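seq as requested:
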Amino acid sequence: MNEQELWKMIESLAKLQMETARQMQETDRRMQETDRRMQETDRRMQETDRLVRQVSKQLGEWGNRWGSFAEGMAKPSLDRMLKEDFGMDVVGPDKSHINGRSLEIDVLAYDNGSRNEAYVVEIKSRLTENAIKQILNTLSDAPTFFPHLQGRKLFGILAAVDIPDNARNQAIKAGLYVARMSDDIFSLSVPKGFKPKDFGQTAHRNGKPHGRKKKSPSN
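struct tokens:
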């Protein structure tokens, strides 16, 4: 190998080292960029999670306010209806405790006369299948938590602002009255000839109350 070939080899080696260094710098730059993008993605995911939690909280608060609004709108109309149309003497919310368990009723109405009837009313912003299940459980437990209801005819009323047809039909099929809001007034929404079920005859199943706490009105 002569001197000229040796210098060419050294020159080629130097160029190769420079290219290798450049590629390593580029690889490092890309790794840093990837890391930056991953950090940005993580930051955005955390921000998304925060927004989801915030929206969920606001929806829950809105639902509670809407449920309270529905109760406030319904109670005056229901009070009038229960007293004037159903002949009830005592109308109002009620709550009872037994052995650490509780049962809360939106409106409990009964008479002090010869009718010997009582009505359990649940007020919802929207009538759902869960609302129907809830009032059926409440009707089953009510005579245990409220002994003065024992021996009475016991009926259920579901009052709601938004009532889908399928939920209304399901409630009526179960023997429940349905009350719907119209022009800021709640009135019964049942078919002609409707015969409500007397839940006083089916109460005390197995003699054990469910004893659950009252669910949120937004359900």
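The beta strands are 90-98, 101-110, 117-126, 153-162, 177-182, 185-188.
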